[in-house]
Amino acid sequence: CSQRRYGTVEYMIQAPKLSRRARWAIPAGALVITGGVLAGSLITAAQAAPGLPARTAAQLLAEVADSTPPPLTGTVVETASFGLPSLPATGNPTSLSSLLTGSHTIRVWYASPGHFRLAVPQSLSESDVIRDGRTAWLWQSTLNKVTKFTLPAHAPENAVPKQPLTPQQAAQQVLAAVGPTTTVRVDSNVTVAGQAAYALVLAPKDARSLVGQVQIDVDGHNGVPLRLQVFARGSSSPAFQVGYTDIAFVKPAAADLSFTPPPGATVSQVNLSDTHSRVKDHAAPDVTTT
Asked: Is the pTM of this model over 0.85?
């Protein structure tokens, strides 16, 4: 396995030895995780724990790993608190400097894995990622620059480059690293973005780890990860958070999922389809101006 450190957070990556379903079949006391995620949110939970049917850690792990989120719209806030000074904006919401400092808001319109829009508003600007089937767009308003991607026929949801992190993606990255070095338990229920949620807590067994625990709050009715928090060892405040501040489980309007390059934008075209990517893996993209 390999080990890396980011600020006050350390994470380990271990190659899984079991199939996905086999990993979730392990008794809850033996389920563990070896990962950490750069992410964040400003959300706070309500004081009173909402009532939900009892669920085991194994049941929640299986639900998050295997489920597809229903259509939804909402607002996500990412927050990183490393004690680092603010860094200059890069125009890229997924750059390392963006993830390591400050707070970032993401608007989400999600219809299916192949049809969604993520917008990152910034001061007097906005960056958007839009996927419509096999076509995806990356728009950076500050540069008036658009990149159009042609995707493989069965490209995964995260196939679009420079995509901002959502709670669902953060949870998937963490749970993909489940192994024998971290314990898993279900804590008291919480409320996130007005939704009753289960609190799934994962903590490294190794006392040398700088990660104290990772908490994933899972919507009690739809099985959607609503918030992920990473706590440094001995800290009561998260070093990273990513979670919804508001969410509605409704299908987005068609207009919210469509995109047309604005006048004067520089448009780069990148073909990532199955046959083209093997032949021109390192070729420069075609560039046109509209």
From this structure: no
